[in-house]
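Training component of the fellowship. As part of building independent skills, the fellow (R.M.) carried out the full modelling exercise for a liganded target. The chosen ligand was NA7. The inputs are recorded below so that the supervisory panel can assess the work.
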Amino acid sequence: MAGGMEASRAGGQNPQSFEALIIGAGFSGLYQLLSLRDRLGLSTRLLEAGAGVGGTWYWNRYPGARCDSESHSYCYTFSKDLLEEWEWTERYPAHPEIRRYLNHVADRFELRRDISFNSRVVAAEYDEEVNHWRIATENGGAFLAKYLIAAVGCLSAANVPSIPGLASFAGRWVHTGEWPHEGVDFRGTRVGLIGTGSTGIQAAPVIAETAGHLTVFQRTANYSVPARNGPLSRDFLGYLKKNHAAIRQLMHATPNGHAFAIEDRSAFDVSTDERLAIYEKAWEKGGLQFRASFRDLLVDKAANDTAADFIRGKIRQIVKDPATAAKLSNIDHPYAAKRPPIDTDYFETFNRDNVDLVDVRAEPIEAITPAGIQTRAREYPLDIIVFATGFDAMTGPLLRLNIRGRQGRSLAQAWQAGPRNYLGLQVAGFPNLFTVTGPGSPSVLCNMPVAIEQHVDWITACIEHLRSRGLERIEPLPDAVEGWVEEVNAAAKATLLPQAHHSWYLGANVPGKPRVFMPYAGGMAHYRGICDDIARRGYAGFRLSR
Ligand code: NA7
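Fellow's submitted model of the complex:
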């Protein structure tokens, strides 16, 4: 197998040896490097495919790209000094600001000297006899390490749908997740944007500003709530500096790791008028906090309907053309059962003369022609096609590493029917391999830096535990994996999330991918308790050996 051969070659090329090897220089990899190197004193190397730090934010530079978590919660909390010295400029950080932040972190903690950039990992193979991982990079690098930590993110493997004829397109096409660093000049061009997830919804208004004409191809209509982005006031920045500890405490206490609490009331604890007033206020405030208006929006369909109907009503109010408004508000899943986007003038964009909406359910895309996109109804002539078609989420970035565990068994084989692991952290048969925010952990259902810090701290403490006891290996027991897979399924079933049949949480956006609800939906605070308890009980469910 190609992966195995690559790794074997890696072993034969005077590989560089480290105690720990980390893949990916995003939020998780940087903090993992700092933790293992500076706290445990391990010889550690970080391999990164890109030419700089940033992880998903290194690649996602499309117009309008910004984080949907508020900036003061989208950062590390492990260092008080870092919290105090860094100042965000906007309510939601745009991609360049997030990169500036991560570059600052890399410089401040002198991380760069242990990072190899332009080093895409193409294979990693476990050698049982000597208990180490052999890692190969695309540029011919070869490495050995006892511990392998995949910090490759959940949304880093771009999903370009295989539409017949793409190669024949005479114009230019781009995927939002692999955006050219020099940008794309849309001025005066006819642009087709495929996809109306968080990305398409962020990109459309910005592209429409300069494009000659923008056609948005919508397969599934989506809810969106205004972000209400804006500059942060001196007052708010002052408040942040004084309240870091309380904000961190709040983020650790909530199920989704954001710096706001979920209201402890049912949608039906209030009258219809009161409910509408609450939604109106949340709409004006903007952001993901809308979802926190009532505690039962994600578990009770009737409660969810009240939020869904409110948003549909807003769409119909905003969008002037009734036919377009009908297409945009014809949403077939509960609110927030797919990751809910937040936007800046998304629905308003359809009031522009240079923007049209195509309902791909009514007229499916049949092909891409040299001139543009051919649907069942007609051809749309285009100069540029933008694929805002998302990612092979959560498992994609891990599977692309060509990982092989005991007896040469690949991760792809182990996960043929969907991801199976313990706590989202470790896979049976793959000793000393850790996955930061892997499937089966809260990950994408949580504000990512909170999930990342929890995982990295747990992994670091686990490795310290092994070292201090002279133990060499850790891997989960099959029964523990079995139990955790059931727990992940049960947690999802207790919510409305699996009702969005086309969601990337289920892998449904990638043809042929097993339909398994991947993130752990039981809440971050609860999950943290489970992980801590397992560690306290001597890593119950794991086999630790010499
Ligand atoms: P998403 O949320 O996966 O959205 C992708 C969009 O692209 C979605 O509207 C898809 O429709 C659409 N899509 C995907 N493939 C096709 C094809 N073949 N034809 C037409 N339309 C298609 O990705 P994003 O990048 O927007 O967001 C990912 C996450 O990043 C987001 O949730 C945040 O966590 C940050 P579908 O809904 O599948 O019918």
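The panel noted the following from the submitted structure. The mean pLDDT is 96. The pocket of NA7 is lined by residues 155, 161, 194-200, 217, 219-220, 339, 360, 365, 388-391, 444, 502, 504, 509 (CB under 6 Å).
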